[in-house]
Each structure stands twice: as C-alpha cells, then as structure tokens.
Write a structure and sequence with these properties.
Layout (H helix, E strand, L loop, with lengths): L1 H9 L3 H14 L4 H13 L3 H12 L6 H17 L2
Helix pairs in contact: 1-2, 2-3, 3-4, 3-5, 4-5
Length: 84
C-alpha cells in the first residue's frame, strides 16, 4: 500500500495517495516512513495540523529521526503562521 501511495503521489493523485497511506497505516500504525510520507503530503496540501500530528506519532517510534523533526517543525511554523 505504501508503494501504491508513492505511485499515486508521483502521478499527482494526492487524494488517492493519502488514502493508500492511511490504509497502510491502519495495518501497521508504527510504520514511521509512511507517517513521514503522509505528513509531507498533508503539509504540501495545506493541512499543517494533521501533518504535525503524523510527525509526532512517528517520532514516538523513531524519536531522533531528522526528517520527522523537520516535518514537525515546518508543520508548526505553517500552523502558527496561519493563525496570526
């Protein structure tokens, strides 16, 4: 499902990519790489709060992963910037 999500994302079918990522995460909620992909996609489409939630969840599994920390920080900046 993760590979399918990546293929959808690469072809610009973001809604289908999101659906595939979520289905894969329903089977394996601790798959940090998929949470990173989903969070990045969500941030790209403007859902900073949900992107931050995905990063936070993935950081429980991989606490010091730089890409996740960067996603969390970018999501917070976007979310806080939008609330001003």
């Amino acid at each position: 499902m993760g590979d399918l999500g990546s293929a959808y994302e690469a072809s610009g079918e973001l809604a289908r990519a999101e659906e595939a990522y979520r289905r894969a995460l329903a089977l394996d909620p601790d798959f940090a790489d998929l949470r990173l992909r989903l969070g990045t996609l969500l941030l790209r489409r403007g859902d900073a709060a949900e992107a931050e939630a995905e990063a936070t969840q993935a950081l429980r599994v991989q606490p010091n992963r730089q890409a996740l920390l960067e996603l969390q920080q970018a999501s917070r900046k976007t979310r806080l910037g939008a609330s001003r």
